[in-house]
Amino acid sequence: MPEATTTDGAAETTPQRRGGRARENDLGLGVGLRNTHFDHILAERPAVDWFEAISENFMDSGGRPGAVLREIARHYPVVLHGVSLSIGSTDPIDRGYVRRLRRLAEEVDARWVSDHLCWTGVLGINSHDLLPLPLNAEVLAHVTSRVHAVQELLGRSLVLENPSTYLRFRDSDVSEPDFLRALCDATGCRLLLDVNNVYVSCYNAGTDPQAYLDAFPFERVVQLHLAGHQHCGTHIVDTHDRPVSDAVWALFAHAWQRSAGAATLLEWDGDVPAFARVHAEVLRAKEFMAAVAGQSAPVDAVASGPWARDSAADQALSTPVDFLVPDVMGRSRLQTA
Amino acid sequence: MSVVAPRLQALQRWMLDALIAPESADRAAVEQHVQPGARIDAAACLGIYRRSYVLRLRRCLAEQFPATRHALGAPLFDDFADSYLRDCPSDSTTLYELGRRYPGWLEANRPDRDAPEDQREDWIDFLVDLATYERELFHLFDAAGHEGQSWPDACADDRDLVLQPCLALAQYRYPVAWYYHEVRAGRAPAFPPCADSCVVVLRRDYHTTTYPVSGLHYRFLAQLRQSGSIAAALDDIAGWTGRTSAAVRESWAAEVRQAWIEAGFFVNRGG
Fold first, then answer.
1. pLDDT tens digits for A48-62?
2. B148-271 in CATH: which number?
3. In chain B, where are the structural domains located?
4. Which of A156, A172, B108, B229 has the smallest number of Cβ neighbours within 10 A?
């Protein structure tokens, strides 16, 4: 396993490692595994702490994606991150899907298996989006029962992520941090806190991201997510197609400290640049981690000024998934006489 | 057992309908279920999900059918994609299956589907064949294959050879494999004239290769797939062509066998 490195390649340890405290979630700074980077990773074996693989891209793979993941898992810690568990759906749990997920997790020795607090479809239809749930007692009971069932099938606790949201239902009467806390208490599941999603959802709802973090059950957090977003003026879309914004970095510093240095990962899914650029972006986290380590008081995370704005755009796409589709054409040829 | 959540179930059915068939959700229904956002109303909040649903899956379909998109042009491809996604929304946990029904949908929705076969538009036949070929390539890309295991060589006995698991036989009315690879090369191929084509598509070392084959070779491989026996397939060819069994076997051994073994058509029986 490669050592965590600084941008100039020098080995460095996280605060937990310096303290000699080995924890399950002490993975350091990781990068989301994307098809377009396969060749680079296999050839160069970059000094990345760990990778997060999209479960559905690999769990049924008889071809190159599965082979690449198995090879990467020989050299790096791997976490599985799903987008189709649909833990909040009212459809029956897809037990075959969960069993295949368990098989893959065992095959690559996944450190944990995560998905989202959402639903992706109903009546057998998959929207391939991470759709929001109303947050209330009925839904908490529903999701609790399903988390129990999934954890039993997986043979391990599930890790759930707060999704980015663009609407709230009138039927909601519980905050997301309180909902997640109650879900964790009832099921023993753990959490992936997506700091960018906090920023996006709070902006869209007109709520305070700092208050969200203040209420969040950090004792359950094993992982943090970072990503870029597109500010459209009236709302923000979680596009994963650009660098992390300054405001999200500020939130990250706070979240990283509160989570006692949880494993941190950058997602870059649209207009994916070269691997080195993606890696450099997640390594920026070290600046904020160092600032936190040098302070006795928590970082004042959230800028109190007006929300920074990108230019408005009508084409911002939430939850991009086309990066999941492999470049079949690039690996095809026609044998001519 | 899952806790029954009737209100949630009704809400999810309503929202999914609103995404797939936007006209099904009127403003009053939206406002009944959805709070306004901080700066936009409830309909605009839902609209972010609606727009992303279509754009997201349209892009995925375009990635899976790049040559069909080239042939149709982006605007028409997108129109077809939107209709397809409405008629055949994804029913799988993986996006790899998104285009599974697309060739069949094109055939079922062709505007001349009720016309006699000899009066149908040939460019639609071409599109259906091209989409079928692209789907086959996409399927083989990630299907179970033989990588990581040993391959037979020319010394192998015919009785030990079977077709490898990641191999497809296909017949088309147009040279769609040629068209696809012209697009891959960055050229702008013209709509090709009708010409029956038989191909073997196989994956070896995680590269997919299309081999044009003659009608005779196609029949031989189809017989081999059916019977699992090279000898039986050669006998079929002898009967079909009227040539002697010895002549067919000589041709197989001298002209075909080694090249096909080296190309990865075969694996050893039993792995």
1. 999 999 999 999 999
2. 3.90.930.50
3. 148-271
4. B108
